[in-house]
Amino acid sequence: MMFKNTKTLVVLEDNQLSDFNMVAKETMPLEWKITPFDYISWKDFEKKRLDPAYSFILLNQVKFQKDKTNAKYNFLSLLLGGTSPSLGDMADLCSVPLSYTGVSEDHYSYKLGVFLRFMQNHVQMLLEQPDLLSVNIFKHYNDNIAQLHGKTLYLVADELSKEINSLPKIKKVYTDNVKIVTRDEIKQAIEERAPNIVFLHKVGPEGTRLDSRCYKILIGADDAKFYYFDYHEVGDKPENADAFLVKDLKHIAKK
Questions:
Q1: What are phi and psi of 170, to 5 degrees?
Q2: Which residue ranges make up each domain of the chain?
Q3: Residues 74-111: pLDDT tens digits?
Q4: pTM score, two decimals?
Q5: Which CATH code fits 3-130?
Q6: Cα 202 from Cα 213, distance rounded (Å)
Q7: Count of beta carbons in the 10 Å neighbourhood of residue 90
Q8: Residue 7: burial class (beta carbons within 10 Å; 0-12, 13-18, 19+)
Q9: Which of 13, 49, 93, 223 has its CA 20 to 30 A from that of 166?
């Protein structure tokens, strides 16, 4: 993997008022340490993506071939330049689900700094342990669940299913430390690299559609480690709500 010899180019959105552009320009100098970096437009990306001297961070619209719902997602992707004929064929070093297309950037833009930290840690791990390239990487991250003990979960009430949308309900299932917080409190924890704080990143349709996926990731505000990664199909039953579910809480409570 030649990644560390590349220059990383952040592909800015054509919309100059994009939250992604603003936050990327603020957070890259603070967070990105692994390679030199710069910013380019999508027009320049089409010229440079064939050059292996570059790697790229971009908002990548993804639709899964086997997904009959035709849902489209925004992923934050770290790609390697090369001779691939299209964006979809480029070597993908790391991709993190951010949102559904059409969902407000407010749902993820304040978390960009911690995702950049995670990407660097992820690539460094693959460089040191190349055998992980052949395994289910998210199963590897779920091995971290046991390390949640002694940490405080930051959860936003409107991202929780009705069965666990208050502390009394949560405590019936999960006895470790939990706080119901605002998105501003999560943003502050990320910026301050608050130790022993783990927050929920939920990617769901937010009312834009019914039949689709809901991703649930628990991420360390300080270490940017993934402690839990899963998804389920969204439907009209409580066990398929667009939310962090009681079964998710039970799963991490068992470890």
A1: -60, -45
A2: 3-130, 135-254
A3: 999 999 999 888 898 999 999 999 999 888 898 899 99
A4: 0.93
A5: 3.40.50
A6: 10
A7: 21
A8: middle
A9: 223
